[in-house]
Amino acid sequence: MRYAYSTPAIRAAEERAMAEVGDGALMQRAAAGLAAVCGDRLQRRRGRVTGARVLVVTGPGNNGGDGLYAASRLARRGAQVFAWLVTEQVHGAAWRAFERVGGRRLDTEQTLRRIAAGDFDQVIDAGFGIGGRAGLTGDLARIADATRGGPADVVAVDLPSGLDADSARAGETCFPADATVTFGARKPCLLSEPARSLAGAVTLVDIGLPLDPGEAELAQWELPELAAAWPYPGPTSDKYARGVVGIDAGSAHYPGAGLLAVGGAVHAGPGMVRFLGDERAGSIVVQRFPNVVTAAGRCQAYLLGPGWGDRDDARTTIESVLATGLPVVLDADALRHLPQRRLEHALLTPHAGELARLLEVDRDRVEADPRWAVRTAAERTGVTVLLKGATQYVARPGEKLVHTAIPGPAWTAQAGSGDTLAGVCATLLAAGLAPRDAALAGASLQAYTAAQHPGPWPPQELAERFPAVIASLSKERP
Ligand SMILES: NC(=O)C1=CN([C@@H]2O[C@H](COP(=O)(O)OP(=O)(O)OC[C@H]3O[C@@H](n4cnc5c(N)ncnc54)[C@H](O)[C@@H]3O)[C@@H](O)[C@H]2O)[C@@H](O)CC1
Ligand SMILES: [K+]
């Protein structure tokens, strides 16, 4: 599990740590970790640190201090180090250390000229860290622009300047990095797209901040969580132990959605799938999956909504399934017909547009603050909500911590991905997983499969690769 903490939680932990060891010690730990990563990267790219030309883009606060101290360490290994100052203000002790090792200050024009000439092997972005605001202006924006796409290896200190540590937003201007060295704990921006992609490869340096996962803002699943949650059948499991899924998806207008939802469910290993939807969609489903049953009968979880379109009995169908008290995934068109009361036993799986409609806000509001949006939806509806997208967020009512699924490649964003995902989630509910785990395991399986089998595969073919991944995951089980 990867945890991310908000800026106030990190600042509070820093204060507790500083009271014990002093702020100088924390900064030295940060600088040592940063210099180690920078040195390794230089070594890998050019065979040695000696003779490397390193520019520190130096902000006015402690982030700038980290960068200067790290550069001083690189200078002691033979690098030539330069600094460009964002303002005249600079961390005094770090600046003196930088000057002592022969570090040189460059003005803006010299810096831009040398960047354009491809003169730097590495640019350390020590502009702003957790004290930063979204967006860059003035000469710093020019320097970030000039560096972008150039030959220098860009290493961000704590987080890329121009990002807001607590937000998923990428903003208008920022300093994209090839790598980020973050201190003490991950920040939410480093786990949330589109900000996350601007940070490159993230290394977490332990500087001894006393943080408790109970204070975390975000928790991202990794493979061990997926493997531990996956419901592998036992030696005596029958089809009811594995779970019977009832799927009402697809319509005469959208017959494909039924097939896609069933494809997701079938490839996630249910005991049985009953197709309860439109007759025409059902005949296509059975042709493709003869193991699917179209007769009504006992189910242990349901999926309603993908490809329904407009349907007169939407509300009554939802109510009759909710009345069974069995777990149900409510997806796509079913989300437009939710009863106006608190629900139970359901998992809602909206994308940003559907969640915006549910909350009666603009889509922009959801994208600007996805954690707020998914938490608010869980509180209002009373059930678990999975917000689908480049980062997939899951919130439960009564819980501040938001989880995210294992991230996957961007090409999984395509028509039909949500239908197969809903099918997987319903299979997991039928196997007895709690809605939160079903949502995280389903979304993680789809993303991880896409990462393991670089495509682009259409969603139905990606689903055909689930079984191989599920089999391989069993080796990761605790
Ligand atoms: N406090 C500590 O003990 C430690 C802090 N560390 C470093 O300190 C950083 C936080 O330091 P600071 O609190 O000094 O803050 P920053 O160094 O992140 O920012 C300094 C100041 O710059 C100004 N600023 C921010 N964004 C701007 C923008 N877009 N345009 C113009 N001005 C802007 C703000 O007034 C801000 O207070 C962390 O990110 C980390 O790198 C590490 O050294 C570890 C220890
Ligand atoms: K930075």
From TrEMBL:
One GO BP: nicotinamide nucleotide metabolic process
Keywords: ATP-binding, Isomerase, Lyase, Metal-binding, Multifunctional enzyme, NAD, NADP, Nucleotide-binding, Potassium
Binding annotation for AMP: 418
Cofactor entry: K(+); Mg(2+)
Binding residues annotated for (6S)-NADPHX, in chain numbering: 62-66, 129-135, 158, 257, 307, 351, 419
InterPro entries linked: CARKD (IPR000631), Nnr (IPR030677), Ribokinase-like (IPR029056), YjeF_N_dom (IPR004443), YjeF_N_dom_sf (IPR036652)
Protein name: Bifunctional NAD(P)H-hydrate repair enzyme
UniProt source species: Enemella evansiae
Source taxonomy: Bacteria, Bacillati, Actinomycetota, Actinomycetes, Propionibacteriales
